[in-house]
Design a protein that fits this description.
Largest sheet: 6 strands, mixed
Distance between the termini: 56 Å
Order of helices and strands: HHEHEHEHHHHHEEE
Bound molecules: zinc ion
Mean pLDDT: 92
Radius of gyration: 20 Å
Strand order of the largest sheet: 2-1-3-4-5-6
Length: 240
């Protein structure tokens, strides 16, 4: 480890030293290579030269969200894109990593589902509600302008208490990012022909519940209570 990385002071008394943190990660890799990889060798051999993920999963970079764990998926199942606030920039405004991943997933990998997944206790959503803490983080502040539509919508329409605002904003942010997703030409074309389905989820870290957006009713409902709520608009064309 370079000297400059040693002795980095931690903010939290529970935080490991930089040395210990890296050791845990490398030890984990070695355990994977020795114990886990040999047990699943057939899967990794099959995946060595191709992928056919069943869905694209766009979620927050938050370390507590592990898409493969909460959906019990294996390597090769999910095409995952993560960023601060599970943001999807509208097409044409910022054609960077998220937009490229969406186009690749739809056009090259033919994914049939895109899930945008927000979560409870999201630091990005807290920052959108109270941006004072972002003074030293101009890049995060600029990125979160893609959530401004949700903040404005909550501020002008919601009579919720300060305690409820975070939950409502988290929901509205997922709805806003689904709207942005539909501005991407690859997505819009396949949605219109019924070849692609989009989903808006909120994962609760403390309870493991997921609530999904029902676009027809305009509300989030728990997954597991009746039919799966759908965020996909009605198709208007036959697939060619
Ligand atoms: Zn988050």
């Amino acid at each position: 480890m370079p000297d400059r990385m040693r002795g980095v002071k931690s903010d939290s008394p529970e935080q490991e030293s930089a040395d210990d943190a890296l050791k845990r990660i490398v030890d984990g890799f070695q355990h994977f290579r020795r114990e886990v990889f040999p047990e699943q060798q057939a899967l990794f051999k099959k995946l060595a030269n191709s992928q056919r993920p069943r869905a694209m999963f766009i979620t927050c970079a938050d370390s507590r969200i592990v898409p493969e764990l909460i959906t019990q998926s294996s390597p090769g199942d999910l095409f995952v894109t993560r960023n601060v606030g599970n943001v999807v920039p509208p097409y044409g405004q910022m054609n960077g990593g998220v937009s490229s991943a969406i186009e690749y997933a739809v056009m090259a990998l033919d994914v049939q589902h895109i899930i945008v997944c927000g979560h409870s206790d999201c630091g990005a959503m807290k920052a959108v509600l109270d941006p004072a803490g972002l003074q030293r983080m101009p890049t995060v502040k600029a990125w979160l302008r893609h959530c401004e539509v949700a903040r404005s919508l909550v501020e002008q329409n919601c009579s919720c208490t300060a305690g409820e605002a975070l939950g409502v904003l988290t929901e509205e942010n997922v709805v806003a990012q689904l709207d942005h997703l539909r501005t991407h030409p690859s997505v819009a074309a396949r949605l219109a022909s019924g070849q692609l389905f989009i989903h808006g989820w909120i994962y609760n870290i403390g309870t493991s519940e997921i609530r999904a957006y029902d676009a027809e009713k305009g509300e989030f409902r728990m997954i597991g209570d009746g039919p799966l709520p759908m965020a996909t608009p009605r198709a208007r064309y036959q697939a060619s």
